[in-house]
Design a protein that fits this description.
The protein is 44% helix and 17% strand. The protein is elongated.
Amino acid sequence: MRFVLALIGTIFALDLLRWVASARIAKPTFARITIAIFALAQLAGLSWLLTQRFSHAESTALFSKFAIATVFIWHMILLPLLLLLSVALLPIFAMVALIRIARRLRNSNSAPRDANGALSRRQFLGVALAAAPPLFNVSLATIAMRQLDQFRVRRFVLPIVGLPSDLHGLTITQISDMHVGRFTSGRILHEVVRVVNELRADLVLLTGDLINDAIADLDHGLDLVRSMQASHGVYLIEGNHDLIENGPEFERRVKDSGIPFLLDESVVITIRGTPLQLLGLSWTRARENRDVAIAAAVRQLLNQRQPESFPILLAHHPHAFDAAAAASIPLTLAGHTHGGQLMLNEQCGFGPALFRYWSGLYTKGASKVIVSNGVGNWFPLRVRAPAELLHLTLLRP
């Protein structure tokens, strides 16, 4: 908690520092007023979000998605980038400041405006530098709003070694990271359900993060899951966002919903006369040595494995694949990464910086993992990591 409070205090301090610095750069009164309005709006938005989070009273009624998106993008992308850029350019700023002081000592008669009262070149540059970050913030938020209502259907045809002949052609719709709540709501959720049902898969498997964080959104999320159709059932596991506000309450209510919820549990389904076993991994709460804890949890879950059944592991965190591959599990389905969220290209971005497996298909020996980019959003902006539903077709090689 001390770390969280220190981080929040640092963010507010950086907001105020940026406000003061921008006001000094932009001399004209109108520019300073505009900067003040932007700074106060960001501080108010951040304060409101924090109040909602700590009071467990999640609601977007007072602020539009666009306004919330500007707060997220500003504090999680642009403000840190400005800080890094300022630190990198600090020697240049210091040199420029010394040069300006020297010039003022030589000539104290320089005028900030020309005879017509127009902005001087220096003032225009100052206004432009101060205004650029807010304008960029609004532009990114506008792009984000368009993305929130879009997703793709990504299809994989997977040759699986050891797949029983009766399961040849089995279809699975994988849904991950719906994040029902702040940014994923309304029409887009009903569109997800419509597309899922149109795919007419044999199985619909949800690999965690049904809700964004607020338990208040859980009933709506469960209603959406109940609306999904598959010839051999719909199955669900948990993700880290499901547990943010009240993990025990989330687990209790999903268990009571009647929707098959695999919480370190397995279920055997008979499809075309052949048993298929789904193994559902719960979210590993360990903060240190997470990969070690995930591997241990996978090995513990695999004690339930039935040799006569074809196994599929459902794990929110994709690093579960390492232990699954070591145990010769032929297929693992995962999410959590959002495809890297912000990617410069397929190999450069938050995905490879944070995860060994972050989007699409990865193979180890005869074992495969599919990592979904997720169909919903906890953060409004995606770059080269589009939201998606996955449609998988399993084939015998």
